[in-house]
Predict the structure.
Amino acid sequence: MFKFFGTRAGTWTGFAAAALVLFGLAPLVMTGFRLGLLAQFLCYAIVAVGIGLAWGRGGMLTLGQGVFFGMGAYLMAMHLKMADAEFRNGPGAVPDFMELAGIRELPAYWTPFSSAGFTIAAILILPTAFAVLLGLAVFKRRVKGAYFAILSQALAGAFAILLIGQQSLGGFNGLSRFRYFFGYNLDDPVNQQMLYFIVAGVLLVVVAVSLQLRRSRYGELLVAVRDAEERVRFLGYDAANVKVVAYAVAALFASIAGAVFVPIVGIISPASIGIVPSIMFILGVAIGGRASLVGPVVGALAVAWAQTALSEQFPSAWTYAQGLLFILVIALLPGGIASIASVAKRFQTKRTPVEAAA
Amino acid sequence: MSVALTCKNIEVDFDGFKAVAGVDLELARGEVHFLIGPNGAGKTTLVDAITGLAKYSGSVVKDGEELRGKKVHHIARKGIGRTFQTATVFENLTVAQNLDIAAGAGRSPWTLLRRRRHLPQIVVDTMERIGLKDQAETPAGVLAHGQKQWLEIGMLLVGDADVLLLDEPIAGMGHDERETTGLLLHDIAADRAVAVVEHDMDFMRAFASRVTVLHAGAVLASGSVDDVSGDARVQEVYLGTATKEAADAATA
Amino acid sequence: MDLLVGQLFTGLSTGSILLLAALGLSLTFGQMGVINMAHGEFIMAGCYTAYVVQQVVGDAGASLLIALPIGFLVGGVMGLVLEALLIRRLYHRPLDTLLVTFGVGLILQQVARDVFGAPAVNVSVPEALRGGVDLLGVTVPKTRLFIMALAIVAVTAVTLVLRFTPAGRRIRAVVGNRDLAETAGISSRTVDAGTFFIGSGLAGVAGVALTLIGSTSPTTGQSYLVDAFLVVVAGGLGRIKGAVVAAVALGALQAVFETYSTASLAKVGVFIVIVVFLQLRPQGLFTLRTRSLA
């Protein structure tokens, strides 16, 4: 059965089934409220696909994906706030939260975000370019492993603190209360469903891109760099460039996820992108299976669902559960749910090393 | 037989300790050149220096081009390949994937981003040459110890290296595997320069075209197997070690 | 002049706090290569130890003196348990250790929340440490001087232990070459456990000291952890000396940035400086094993 999904026909079947569930079944059986929740979870799943690529395949434990998620989210939120202000008070108007904070003049860096085209370009380019620059700075100097993880985490911390200090970005409260999304009223259930379809479509595209990268020669090279970076260097490759690509793609995915997250959830604040939310992105990926394609998606959805279902009723128990999941999954089942089949097989044959344990 | 690589006055300094102290070395195509010497003689460090891993003073020239100061992957692209004492292959990838990666350092981004349709001919040929044709789809991690070492040599061959620096290529091999490896080395040395860091004297006597003896970071002697075996200083170093080992064994 | 002295002092003070938080890490991470994300929670445990001891003892001065050694024991025992139950099984998977210990940290935070409540608690400062001292024209809080002194004592103690005691020599031997140390008859298991005990104990001591300058909440430790890790990264692997220099430098840097901009920009500034620093001196930040790359 697993062999089948490796073939071309199997791939198409898999995507068709996923599309059927996401576009046909889910809207049919779920209420608008639940569909909105699912849309939010799908945003986390998009981030998870990127982490699966960078961490699972590339060995880069990035504990700072909240930074790129936040960049995409804030860039989109700035545009939505600008559009709302223009809609109410005409061009050049100051967004409502600035009025409350006593900011009369629109800060110069906000101005270009009245353009939808500029905003979308910024969402796609800025975080990716930032990831490339940072990746080059770090990987070219062969900073890796734990050092990279700690740096990425410090980055998330610094970014959240930076945002808290910016009154013109809403400070601690962040940006919220968006009325329109490129002209469509966000209170209208039809438009909310449209947003769900957009994010579901984005997820399928992101998974497809990740699949192509994994199956390509680049994907094999990435695994080679993960397992024996110096060996790759001695074969004549610049291993840093290989890593930068995966890191930048993961950043791009996170940024897009952040951008669609904002109109769906209606708020973005430093609290949802700092150190702890960033490391929480990892949990779903670990549970689902860091090195597998679909595992991170399933894991992210499961964790987000559990969080929503449990955290309000049993906040204390949920935190214990999260901690235990981190401990048990990573220590005992490093390949995640996706590896259960191969772990079972290994018990029978005791031959093949489990790839994800590397 | 043309000279492929010329090292002049190589010095490697580890915080004041000279691991390599002024070594001259020439590697010629068509030769299997053995680097021998006691532990700590600087053999592996010399290989590290040539391949850009260790900083050094002096000069390494390949086909008229100075390599000192170049990055590791640039030196590799100039056709200098190396193996490691512990065979380092990509354990989670198959033999074919290992070789395909090794063959592809010059690939364009466009090629890299597409799926591999066919194995390059050189990969197929090399699998035959290193005797791993039947293991093409086997993950490298489950290969036998000796097979991993052959695979690593194969990775240098497909990568078009014409100076091969092999660090203990027969470590842990049985007798038959050693023979096969020795013949393979001579086969590939036909149009390449091959340097072998080795401790095994029998293997050296059987397969060396030329021998350089290192001791305490310097060249003690260099020449044919017979030249070197007859050298008084070499005997002293090796006999000295041997006597001491015997003494150690006696007291232990 | 006053401004300069003031800044210098703030830098030293921030640095000594960083150093106290990072010293234990530089043992466990630097010397053993283990990334313990629960280290912050060990600090937090030290803070609550000070709180509990004060509830029992009452007198602020006596309770501080009692809490310091107890804090060391509390942190140390927690570290010992963590090492025995989890970290020992994960020595060859440093990144997984990071995530597993993060899970441990989450649980410890929640335990603190369930036992002591989410709101912050305060420990009263002993009479002798209240107020300030005039030093070169600036007023310096006595609590900060105490923390500086404690940092100096802790660094000296660790250095002396590593250098002159048999246990310290064993630790250095295992750090230098695990296999060789084993063949020399040193049990690397015992040494690892011992190193972890000392490193985690230092976190507990840091926690006790930190109650002098701030309130304690379940997330107290977490807020120090990332900075502490940066100190160890910038200082280099296994170098107590490096940690000292890095802590003081980062503390001074933070103080200077904060004077000329805001606290939030200062964090970003410090991060940028560290990334730039890595461009100049990545040495010591990665280990090259030339003979075997596996």
Summary: Strands of chain B lie at 3-14, 17-28, 32-36, 57-62, 65-66, 80-82, 163-167, 193-197, 210-215, 218-223.
